[in-house]
């Protein structure tokens, strides 16, 4: 095996014999045997963490070695398999250690070489490669992958199992004089601490899900403010039609984007105004409906037209009430953007100094975009939670369901006076946690009783 390995390393070290295009079979390019390195993806083309390729991508063939060098440091384990550690250039977070050649990293990782070859193209302005998963999501996945949330749940499970064991021991041996004082009080205080920890975590749950599914960012404003121009700029593709004609956008156009490293669902909407025709009015109604669901509103006005009735109406009906709490209970976040700053007199005064804090932008020249992205980063870190700091947030509805079930059962425990019912409530609570962490069997309870109390031996 070693001889084969050394041969492999020697050949790889010799470097490419003849540059061979690394091509994908079946795309009309040279067929096998013509020297081209062929590989075909046998996994779906969608976004995924790993992909499977046919074994023709040998680590020792020059283009493949180039691909491997491009992607990350590659250690050959055996002639047919290599361990590829992919430390993406901008983020020192190892994303995957796929084994080659049978498994290729998926788009979420392969895109880094593009960022690596032209980082300014994607990462300089807080915008990432259209295919790469937002960094925040990758960090979140990693933290769940390396079980940070799992460790937390296991800790809660240990506390709960101990409290249950102590309550069971108290029921069975309470009268027994060698059960020390305060066994029940200890169990009660542990349950109270658990309730506080779970409650705090569940309050964070919504942020975790936003991080997973993307925060809803809704672009709204009067007609012709430049909403569609801004949506196209932030999503780096022509999502919406832009035209000098007011009332161009009618439907709500939603597109997933990576904004400053956070996942977002960016919605373009119809310009808000009264008195338009029936179709446009339906567009206005849908725009208002989407505004209700927004995690963050990007309010866009034409900086050169702030005195118009539609701008004043928008300021009164959408901008002013935002932040003061929205119908869905939590206060909506809003960033006010004064677009078309290029139409203002150069170096002229702020168009409306008594307006709430706002950002000047020109979708035409790009002036002000960096400031907007920085403001978005701050807002989205609040909306989604910053996955690299603070407790790991819940991103799976299943985790949330069982933790909520556990918390509800703990509530029954604290309310009941009947010890048998109290023990049953703790068993139910432990059962919910067990669906996340496993374990929680009777033998675990008995082990603790025999360990902590000299009974039943
Ligand atoms: N000078 C200048 N023109 C802009 C800017 N942004 C957008 N425009 C122009 O303003 C007009 C309206 O832009 P849109 O993006 O269609 O505006 P909108 O808010 O989506 O319009 P509706 O969909 O009709 O509500 C177009 O002609 C754009 O080219 C800017 O920053 N500066
Ligand atoms: K327009
Ligand atoms: Mg539009």
Bound ligands, named by name, code or SMILES: guanosine-5'-triphosphate, potassium ion, magnesium ion
Q: What's the story with the biggest beta sheet?
A: 6 strands, mixed
Distance between the termini: 56 Å
Number of strands: 13
Give the second-level CATH assignment, the architecture of the largest domain: 3-Layer(aba) Sandwich
Provide the β-strand percentage band: 5-15%
- Nearest-integer average pLDDT: 74
The tally of structural domains comes to 3
- Would you state the CATH class of the largest domain? Alpha Beta
Structural class: alpha/beta
Order of helices and strands: HEEEHEEEEHHHHHEHEEHEHEEHHHH
Describe what this molecule looks like in 3D.
Residues 214-381 form the TrmE-type G domain. InterPro entries: G_TrmE, GTP-bd, MnmE_dom2, MnmE_helical, P-loop_NTPase, Small_GTP-bd. This protein has 457 residues and is an alpha/beta fold. It folds into three domains: 2-130, no CATH class; 148-204 and 395-452, tRNA modification GTPase MnmE domain 2 (Four Helix Bundle (Hemerythrin (Met), subunit A), Up-down Bundle), CATH 1.20.120.430; 212-384, Rossmann fold. Helix content is 45%, strand content 14%. The protein has 14 helices and 13 strands. It has helices at residues 2-14, 62-71, 107-117, 119-122, 135-145, 148-173, 183-213, 227-235, 278-292, 309-319, 369-384, 397-415, 419-437, 442-452, and strands at residues 22-24, 37-39, 50-52, 73-78, 81-85, 99-100, 103-105, 215-220, 253-259, 262-268, 296-302, 333-339, 358-360. A six-stranded mixed sheet has the order 9-10-8-11-12-13, sandwiched between helices. β4 (73-78) and β5 form a beta hairpin. It is elongated. The model is unreliable at 1-32, 35-60 and 71-130 (pLDDT under 50). Residues 227-228, 240, 248-249, 268 line the site of magnesium ion.
